[in-house]
Amino acid sequence: MRRPTIADLAEAANVGISTVDRVLNGRDPVRPQTAERVLEAAERIGFHGVTAIRRRLENEKPVMKFGFLLKQSHRKLYQMWAEVLTKAAETYPDAHGRAIVRFVDELAPENTANAMLALSRDVDAIGVITSDHPQINHAVDGLEAEGIPVFTMISDLSAPGRAGYVGNDNVKKGRTAAWFVANMSRRPGKVAVFVGSHRYLSQELGETGFRSFFRESGAEFQMMETMVTLEEPDIAYDITRRLLQTEPDLVGLYVAGGGITGVMRALREDGSPVAKQMIVVGHELTNETRAGLAEGVIKVVLSHPARMLADTLVRAMAEAVQTNRSPTVSQHTLPFEIFTAANI
Same domain, yes or no, for 269 and 245? Predict the structure, then answer.
């Protein structure tokens, strides 16, 4: 059987012979997408130099340092995000990716701003989960001026200098939570919302969507004032216990921010008919929320597709570093996953 030639490879890859020659010999730069197409064609037709092509492309990849600033290192949710983001950075196909993950345990805005500035000295781009605050936005705009793109994940910022956002449509997420409460409740009654902080835009938009649904389609339900957990399970536990003791008409709870583990602990301990029948909707599928679904303590979890989000974020960060990005903020709106006891 005749061995494939350079001309055969050029035809299979739909490029010129000179382009194949540059890929084989590394004489002049070739666009990464074109080089990958040549490699794919070489593998497909059994070209004898495929190993050399693969090695050369691997050696020519740039080293890129991806910085991720997450919250509260003691929370398993953010430990999970650290693992997923690290894997996405290290497996990014177009660069030798290195992940640098740091946490902000004390959530004061100045701590986040200072941590972001410190992280910027060691990385090419930053992905961050944080609240919307003037001090944080000022840091983001300053980094943009210095050529360090900052992307928000899960919750956006209002900083004009942010490079992009990767996450869900949070209004739609809140409306979906309300749909489940309204349609799964045995009877109309009071409905509560927990947010970690009013400064998380994702939570504020989720609350907006939740309330909007009930104004439009659930007038028989009574919306209670929004309650703040400060992202702390113990605070969420105390608020939930108080509601269970004082609100016999409570039928639904949407936990739009942190604290779901505290909510579940209160529900397990209470064991009253109100606790057992209440429709609780939370965010993010973790080992804890998976157990809550299995037990029936919570009914629905609306979750980011973790690996899709991480891969999308890393690619957006890399593209912002490698190109002169436009002043337009890139929006990557991902679908959210819906989990119940039936599909975990």
Answer: yes
Exposure b/e, 8-18, CB count within 10 A at least 16 = b: bbbbbbebeee
The confidence score (pLDDT) of residue 325 equals: 57
Q: What percent of the chain clears pLDDT 90, i.e. is strictly above it?
A: 76
Of 205, 188, 192, the C-alpha closest to 236 is 192
Q: How many angstroms separate the CA atoms of 309 and 88, rounded?
A: 9
* Whole-angstrom distance, CA of residue 307 vs CA of residue 71: 19
- 161 HSE (CA, 13 A, CB side): 17
N-terminal to C-terminal alpha carbon distance within the chain: 52
Q: How many C-beta atoms surround the C-beta of residue 102 within 10 A?
A: 18
- Rounded to an integer, what distance in angstroms lies between the CA atom of residue 304 and that of residue 290? 14
Same domain, 179 and 296: yes
Residues linked to residue 126 through DSSP beta bridges, in sequence order: 67, 150
Segments in 271-340 forming alpha helices (H): 273-277, 287-295, 306-322
Cβ-based neighbour number of residue 290 at 10 Å: 15
Per the structure, the count of domains in the chain is: 3
The domain in which residue 75 lies consists of 63-167+306-334
**pTM of this prediction exceeds 0.85:** no
Quickly tell me which residue has 């909007």 as its tokens: 212
Per-residue pLDDT tens over the stretch 138-179: 999 999 999 999 999 999 999 999 999 999 999 999 999 999
Q: Which residue has the tokens 């990958």?
A: 36
Express each pLDDT in 260-310 by its tens digit.
999 999 999 998 999 999 999 999 999 999 999 999 999 999 999 999 999
Q: In this predicted model, what pLDDT tens digit does every residue of 314-339 receive, in sequence order?
A: 999 999 998 765 567 899 999 999 99
